[in-house]
Write the structure tokens for this entry.
Amino acid sequence: MESNFEIGRDIENYDDILGLISETNLKDVSCKRIFGFKISESETTSTLLCWQCNLADINGFDTKLPTTVILEIENANRTIKSVELKENFKGSQGMPCARLFS
């Protein structure tokens, strides 16, 4: 598995994640997962940008199943203010979960 450290690049925002997923290929393996997280803190809130992407070779075609979640936490009482599942979600358990979720 590859984390931010193993892929040799920092992830600062959602656009960075989209770029990394777009640029990632399987090369000589049949499947892999890339993942990472970014924590940003202000005086009142902390934001966690969490992501992972399953990649698989399906009949010679690289299939990518990303999941990106953004959590906002109120620092004073450590409660979750919001959770956002980004629109690039394709399922995280493989092809059977690659349908739209609402």
Notes: The helical segments are 4-7, 14-23. The longest helix spans residues 14-23. Residues 22 and 94 are 18 Å apart (CA to CA).
